[in-house]
Amino acid sequence: MKIRANGIDIHYQVEGSGPWLTLSHSLASDHTMWAPQMAALTPHFTVLRFDTRGHGRSSAPPGAYTWEELRDDALGLLDALGIEKTHFVGLSMGGMIAQHLALAAPGRIDRLVLADTVSRYPAAAAAQWQERIELVREKGMAALEEGTLERWFTAPYRAAHPEVMARIGALIRNTPANGYIGCAHAIPTIDLAERLGELRAPTLVIAGAEDAGTPPEIAREIAGRIPGARLEIIPEASHLTNVEQAERFNRLLCEFLIPQENER
User: Fold this and answer.
1) Bridge partner list, 203
2) Each residue's pLDDT tens digit, 85-110
3) Which long-range contacts (CB under 8 A, 24 or more apart) does 213-218 make?
4) What is the DSSP-derived secondary structure letter of residue 120?
5) How many Å apart are CA 91 and CA 30, to the nearest integer?
6) What pTM, to 2 d.p., does this model score?
7) Could you tell me the fold of the domain covering 2-262?
8) Domain ranges, ordered by start, for the chain
9) Maximum pairwise Cα distance, the chain
10) Where are the alpha helices (DSSP H) in 54-92?
11) 2-5 and 8-16: which strand pairing?
12) Are 38 and 2 a contacting pair, CB within 8 Å?
């Protein structure tokens, strides 16, 4: 399904029943990244998954995207669907969108999960992201597939699960170049660390123990800045913890989200 919001067409999917729970995916992916979570979540929640601007079947306009655009896309989707309040789970880029949304519209967020993400980048990171942008401009998304899979999953998992590598690799390759480039302009500009103390939603921070891109030290910093936040480090996992250690990831989500619903 698609809805026009914030000037673009946003593709989304709704499944399950219960309180609203929104899932926001990583860069170079789409809403199907969350497939390993659906069986665990849909008995308890009405789950909203959507394709971020420039990804999947959502619009992929050219040019650099901003965090304000990405945030307002998510907020516009919630408005269009009449969702007044939702739990929000974001992984990697999705976690960055989640932070912006929770700070801009705190009344819309019930519980917040920030997985494998950052709240700021050092200034030197901009050059690395620019290199990736130029590589995509010159050679297309396929040029990023191998290196991205190596960052996203541990070597033992990659070797043992070629079918998962094929599925996630296809998501990377099929990401519109405009979308990747647009989001890659925004990512290194994130600078929210000093504002995390403003967050009041109960928050769970998750990190993969072997994630070099968003390592546990960053997760510890994020959790330490958010009042009352809970930190969980998942062993034997790199960046896509929701895929590599889906059972553990799902258990953490359910432990964090479901008890609140039982108290109502």
Assistant:
1) 112
2) 999 999 999 999 999 999 999 999 99
3) 213/116, 213/151, 213/239, 214/92, 214/116, 214/117, 214/118, 214/239, 218/117, 218/118, 218/119
4) B
5) 12
6) 0.97
7) Rossmann fold (3.40.50)
8) 2-262
9) 54
10) 67-80
11) antiparallel
12) no
